[in-house]
Amino acid sequence: MQFSEKRLNSNLKKQIFQIFYQTIADLKNTDEAEIFFKDFLSKTARTALAKKLAIAVFLDKKRSYQNIKKTLGVSSSSVAEVYKRLSSPGFQLALKKVKTEEWADDWSKKIGGALKRILPQE
């Protein structure tokens, strides 16, 4: 699908982006997100976004450029592009979300392990 280069009326542009962002915000779980993005983005676009997030996470964890390039199959310029933007609000928000999820997973495992040791086994 190709889109016209014609500029949108600024009010219309604001409205369609508001609907777009609200639709994404209203997705309830990863299953809904997967369904949405599979229909709205090509496999290449989804992969590019996922890799960009992965690069940010790896950089945040102090992984080397070489390790990131090898692990994700990306170029030095891709890593450098993300590195330059790592302190921007969108990347910081994404990293905060990833860290929160990792923290919750870690604590869930710790609590589950503690409960196994405390509660009698059936």
Task: Write a short abstract of this structure.
This protein is mostly helical and 122 residues long. The chain contains 6 helices and no strands.
Report on this model:
The protein is mainly α and 122 residues long. It is built from six helices and no strands. It has helices spanning 10-25, 30-40, 43-60, 65-72, 76-85, 89-118. Helix 3 crosses helix 5 (76-85) and helix 3 (43-60) packs across helix 6. The protein is extended, with a radius of gyration of 20 Å. The termini are far apart. The model has no long low-confidence stretch (mean pLDDT 89).
What is this structure's SSE topology?
Elements: H1 10-25, H2 30-40, H3 43-60, H4 65-72, H5 76-85, H6 89-118
Helix pairs in contact: 3-5, 3-6
Task: Identify the notable features of this structure and list them briefly.
122 residues; 6 helices; 76% helix; 0% strand
From the helix content, strand content and strand pairing, which structural class follows? mainly alpha
Low-confidence stretches: none
Morphology call: extended
State the total count of DSSP E strands. Answer: 0
Helical amount among residues, as a percent range?
A: over 70%
Written as H for each helix and E for each strand, in order along the chain, the element string is HHHHHH
How does the major sheet shape up? none
Mean pLDDT: 89
Number of helices: 6
Radius of gyration: 20 Å
Beta-strand share of residues: under 5%
Q: What is the CA–CA distance across the termini?
A: 58 Å
